Amino acid sequence: MAANLTAVESRGQDSTFVAQCSLPGLQDRLPLRWIVPSDTPPSPKKAYRSHYVYLGGWQDLQDATARKHLSPFDLILRLVDFTPLRAVLAHLLGWTSTRGRVPFDPISIFLLNGWQVTSHWFRAETLRNLCNPMNAEYARRFGFENGVFPTEGGLRHWLTALGQNSTNGETILVDEEQHIEIAIERLNQLLVQSVSLLVENGFLSQEAWEKALICPDGMIHDAASRMRCASVRETCYQPVSPDTLRPCPAKEKERRGCNCDTIICASACRYATPRDPEARFVWYSGSNHSTDNPNQSTNPAQAKKKQGKGRYGYRSLPIQLADPLRRFSVVLLDAFQPANQREENVAAALLLQLHANYPNLSVDTVAGDAGFGYERVLQVIYRDLHARRAIDLRADKSDRDKPYWLIRGYDDKGRPVCPYGYALKANGFDFDRRRHKWICAHSCRNGATPAVYIEGTIYPPAECPYLDHPYGQIVNVSERFKNTSSIRLVRDIPVGTRAWRRLYHRARNAVEGRNATFQAWGLKRLRFYGNPRNKALIFQADVWLNLSTMARLVLEATAATSST
Questions:
Q1: CB atoms < 10 A from the CB of 296, how many?
Q2: pTM
Q3: Cβ proximity of 546 and 191 under 8 Å
Q4: Which of 339, 344, 437, 440 gives 472 a disulfide partner, CB atoms 3.0 to 4.6 angstroms apart?
């Protein structure tokens, strides 16, 4: 019966969840104070044009009728005291002294941006609603006084400063041999602090934190600019003169392109998008579908047909944690990049940062689609996180050559194959030695069909040297296959098994939940121009996603308390 329960019903029957996360269970800790590191320096600014102060109101939530008329954002304003966030935002905005114009309180702008994101409004619409007397309560809770509100230019500047100061030269070394370094995003501090709020107050189950299922996945966001040329790259934005010609990537692909011989092309190619210079074109073919998709065509001509659609813009790459017991997820870390940039190096960098940002998090499994099935990601999961790899398989042409399976010793799903062509059976994962054990279990004597037939061999083979062994041939696979040193198809959970499907589907549910929320908030197509503003927007949206999840859980736990 438990399998038929919805997520809400399942959480309602969790007595620990109800006791910890309901309003009666939280009332001794309300308001929940935003958690920041103890060594965070105070804001250098001494005066602001607005001033956020927590105004209370959580007591009103005890009334079930009042709760029905409040949105998750309304609940967050009443449940959380954001006062400590002022110093963090001042640091992220790059403020170092009291000099300059008197700014608005950064918490006021942060809350205003959250109101805009969760309400699916454009900037001008948000400011009109803020000025509306009907929304005076919101203005008061944000800290705006006496009708002094920010302008559109002020909000643009705030987002630009937040995005531009997100990186300060700090990098993390992903691949020492190839000298690949990825910039560390300081905006992840906001995500870490929002997750700490959920962890410290018992919203995440202990099992989810101690045996974490980590789910990386990319989401493409269309740029606000309309694409003019699919081949645009960085050189298209470099100035050109009669002495220095600009290379045309479109012509290199035997397309018409642009000669860049007009005045309008002097500073940048006229087919580039000057307000979104870092946006790029990518053909999205839905490669995150599993290789055992039952809808996949068996017709070779149909299977090779190019599917998907072109997208022009950016890609966010969140690292999420799924709570299988309470059936929800939170965003731990994020990255923001051009749509055509490879995911695996950025994903590896984020996974390497998990321990520094979450020292008490114990990762059990990392599950994701085939886009992360590259050596560096698989190495990081195994060596640095000491976790199991449940990344979908990345195919290669050699996988279709069955006779080659006998040479390399494994099939197209990463299952070891014996010298006579029989696929071995999984016999469990040794967590201490961190290796998967495979045995043949005398398949040849038990009526099994070989995965690869060898011409001239009599089946079942009588000359097999493992016939007298109790379990037959035994193969232990740790980080990679010994014979070929390959890691591409090595998985710590056999692909296609019930355990694999359970973990992979949990991961897909987590990432699709974020995608659905972002689509409802209008973030599939970005509202702003330029990488810095959109980066600041997406990171804040992930923070509000975590906080909205917390508000929803409080409502569910409180409703479960009322019904008992």
A1: 11
A2: 0.92
A3: yes
A4: 440
